[in-house]
Amino acid sequence: MSELMKAVRLHAFGGPEVLMYEDAPKPTIASGEVLVRVHAASLNPPDLYLRDGYRALPPEWRPDPVFPLIIGTDVSGTVEAVADDVTGFAPGDAVFSMVRFPADLMKGSGAYAEFVAVAASELAHKPVAVDHAQVAGAPMSLLTAWQFLIEVGHDAPNPFQPYRHQPVPLAGKTVVVNGAGGGVGHLLVQLAKWQGARVIAVASAKNEALMQQLGVDQFIDYTRQAADEVVRDADLVVDAVGGANMERFLRILKPGGALFLVNPLGFAGHEQAREQGITVSSTQVRSNGPQLAEAGRLLGDGTVRAVLDSSYPLEEAWRAHERAMQGSIQGKIVLTVRSA
């Protein structure tokens, strides 16, 4: 009989109430894997989409999983055991990871649990100076920002476009970040500043103080003023929100500029962009341990920080999902594991 652990599992798709805190089999590790005792995990939009059964997708694209499943990708914890062929990690090491994404996009990567098996290639040592909760808030959002702005880091086919996403030079350039207070947005702001860009942050008024702390050069409260009415001749716009009328950002950009869309679905301005000489591009974040280690050094020395909106114990994951559904999140929502 397999050992048991506590985990948050789905037995059916639905609202936050379907997140069940219960006993589950403790994972075993295969070749190339590491068993991590989870200290903290964080919420990301794909967690909510999967819990809901990806109902926003066409029926033929929706997952057909085998229940029960454990959702969640982002973890920080300590190494419990390593496979015989794994080098670079040892029991007791503090580590963090974005687990099996997007490989397990439709079936759950197992982070909402006391233990998770992680490929060593997706794992990085945790920065010593930062606690597990803050580090757990970083992986997916930080890797998304990194792969958009710094280095894609892989050659996998791009599901959003037929060409490879290419970051652009940022030093001395004007960069507009829409949704700057969100999980990805506040890290895009910090990486752009680190690269020497002039950063204009677009977010709601509650984020203005945080944006000033992060060193933005200009703040626009979108509830009072539309960015496309006041900004001109930007080199790059990164939209971390998506939704209707993303085409409005083309008015902000100078000829030869770029528009990066974190969620490009619904963008209808490709012809207009070509006429203006603007590059429109997107990419899907992928697990990458070496990139996470490199970005983690910025977390460790304070150049970048993951801002936490709120924290809940693992057994109250349903409450964390309720908070996520309320919107107006500043930074990340984290789950903490009491047994760690």
| Mean of all residue-level pLDDT scores | 95
Please state the CA-atom Rg, rounded to the nearest Å: 20 Å
Major beta sheet, specifics? 7 strands, mixed
Can you tell me the CATH architecture of the largest domain? Alpha-Beta Complex
Query: Unreliable stretches, pLDDT < 50, 5 or more residues?
Result: none
How would you describe the shape?
globular
Query: How large is the share of residues in beta strands?
Result: 25-35%
The total count of helices amounts to 9
Task: Itemize the secondary structure elements and their pairings.
Elements: E1 4-9, E2 20-25, E3 33-42, H1 45-51, E4 74-82, E5 94-98, E6 115-119, E7 123-125, H2 132-136, H3 139-149, E8 174-178, H4 185-194, E9 198-203, H5 208-213, E10 218-221, H6 227-230, E11 234-239, E12 253-261, H7 270-276, E13 279-281, H8 289-300, E14 308-313, H9 317-326, E15 332-336
Parallel strand pairs: 8-9, 8-11, 9-10, 11-12, 12-13, 14-15
Antiparallel strand pairs: 1-2, 3-4, 3-6, 3-15, 4-5, 5-7
The gist of it:
The protein has 340 residues and is an alpha/beta fold. The protein has helices spanning 45-51, 132-136, 139-149, 185-194, 208-213, 227-230, 270-276, 289-300, 317-326, and strands at residues 4-9, 20-25, 33-42, 74-82, 94-98, 115-119, 123-125, 174-178, 198-203, 218-221, 234-239, 253-261, 279-281, 308-313, 332-336. The protein has two domains: 4-139 and 306-336, Quinone Oxidoreductase, Chain A, domain 1; 166-281, Rossmann fold.
